[in-house]
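ok so for the tutorial part 2 we go from a plain amino acid sequence to predicted structure tokens. step 1 is just haveing the sequence, like this:
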Amino acid sequence: MKKTVFAALVVLLLVASGATAATISGNYLEARTASVWVGACFANSEMGLVGQEAVMGWQVTDGRWNGVSVAGLSVVGVVRAADTLGTRADMPASSVIIVDQRASAEQAQALVSFVRASAPRLFARVVHVETAPIQFVLEETSGAGHHGHASGAAAKLVVGDLARVVTREIREHDATCANAERYYEPLVAGIHAEPAFTTAHEYRGNGLGSVWSNPNRPSAYVGTFAR
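step 2 — the prediction. this is what the tokens look like for a chain of 227 residues:
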């Protein structure tokens, strides 16, 4: 009898945990102006000099946020920090959020809320919210990268005429110095992603007092998110 009651409790706990599991999920891409898959020697030479900027994109494939269905929509966050991103948790930053132009007003509000909840410190100071057509294409790869490390994936994020990120898998010759590794982790919570090589990374929007183009470095993460 006790075993039966215990088993029933386990089932109830599993059901409850499932009910409170991720309510929103999809694909994720992040590109920074510093290498993320790199040896410590090279990362230390960049620290404090580059890496203050990043473009992050979420493509929602399923789910709701704040009770609003946002499946099929995308949203992009662009960040410019005071120092190299990833070096400290309380990094002051300014940000712009770009919402899929197909979103309704209610969906746009939910997507902005989702981005701010995904990285509260980075999006504590949102200076501008706008809409644009967003194209997010992810091509999964199953191979292994340099020295057996996961190789990331080929992806493309085009945000109107504001931003563009293109990535491919990491290859052996992409290492900038010996002992390359995941030196920085993704900037936001709920991400399962692997490093990727950035062939294009540019931002030409307003609001951050800076535009940039920073291609051809192992500076991206590509994968999925679930919250």
